[in-house]
UniProtKB/TrEMBL annotation:
UniProt superkingdom: Bacteria
Function: Catalyzes the formation of N(7)-methylguanine at position 46 (m7G46) in tRNA.
Stored PANTHER family: 3-DEOXY-D-MANNO-OCTULOSONIC-ACID TRANSFERASE/TRNA GUANINE-N 7 - -METHYLTRANSFERASE, PENTACOTRIPEPTIDE-REPEAT REGION OF PRORP DOMAIN-CONTAINING PROTEIN
Keywords, in A-Z order: Methyltransferase, S-adenosyl-L-methionine, Transferase, tRNA processing
Family, per entry: Belongs to the class I-like SAM-binding methyltransferase superfamily. TrmB family.
Protein name as catalogued: tRNA (guanine-N(7)-)-methyltransferase
Length: 243
């Protein structure tokens, strides 16, 4: 995931749903913003990067049109984000990432590919979900390769936990989907278990299988993923639908 100072206060949880104060949609990560990324931030940021606010946003006004909106949490350097947005011009993509080089890199891709259906929030996605996203407003949610927190003692820091999934499910329209992907099998199994216990979601995978979904065509193979597959590393996709 990405790097930035943690917000000063934890997001408020819905009544009856606790969420660990330590959970954030990102981790601290070192990285240098290149000249090109810095220029993209300066030139394109005012158009495509939205300010964080403590109230629900009007998605149609934000994108200048009414269209299905997909939330992406942690887009890294934006390679998959730009690919999917170009593949699905009929959809809007609201993308959260706090790492400045990643934001700059996606802005560069937006300019190079002439993409008009992406908006970026350079803010912790947990607070964005709690305070900016209306209930039943999203057609889909993408969470690709969140930090797996490999050590058992750090598992509690993983993003995909029941309280957050409950909030995400509440913001999906009926028939909307939540798509997670990871290359760490223990995390994949945890994600599958957590999503399976959320009553507002149902698994789209074949009931006769292991619960994991085939890789949807829209999710591209990244260079990192291709390298891992060549080394025999697995990748697991989990796709659930809002009932």
């Amino acid at each position: 995931m990405t790097a930035a100072p943690a917000p000063s206060s934890a997001p408020a949880a819905p009544p009856g749903v606790a969420h660990p104060k330590s959970i954030r949609s990102f981790v601290r990560r070192a990285g240098r913003t290149t000249t090109g990324q810095a220029k993209a931030l300066e030139d394109l940021g005012p158009k495509f990067v939205l300010p964080y606010s403590g109230h629900a946003i009007d998605l149609a006004a934000t994108f200048g049109r009414s269209a299905p909106t997909i939330l992406e949490i942690g887009f890294g350097m934006g390679e998959a984000t730009a690919h999917i947005a170009a593949l699905m011009p009929e959809n809007n993509f609201l993308c959260c990432e706090v790492h400045p080089p990643g934001v700059g890199a996606l802005l560069k891709r937006i300019d190079e590919q002439n993409l008009a259906n992406i908006r970026i929030l350079a803010h912790d996605a947990v607070e964005v979900i709690d305070h900016m996203l209306p209930l039943h407003g999203l057609a889909g949610i993408h969470i690709f390769f969140p930090d797996p927190w490999h050590k058992k003692k750090h598992n509690k820091r993983r993003l995909i936990q029941a309280p957050l999934v409950a909030r995400l499910a509440a913001r999906l329209k009926p028939g909307g989907y939540l798509h997670c992907a990871t290359d760490w099998q223990p995390y994949a199994e945890q994600i599958l278990q957590v999503l399976s216990t959320e009553p507002l979601l149902r698994n789209t995978a074949d009931a006769a299988g292991d619960g994991f979904a085939p890789k949807p065509d829209y999710r591209p193979l990244t260079k990192f993923e291709n390298r891992g597959l060549k080394l025999g590393h697995g990748v697991w996709d989990v796709v659930f639908e809002r009932v």
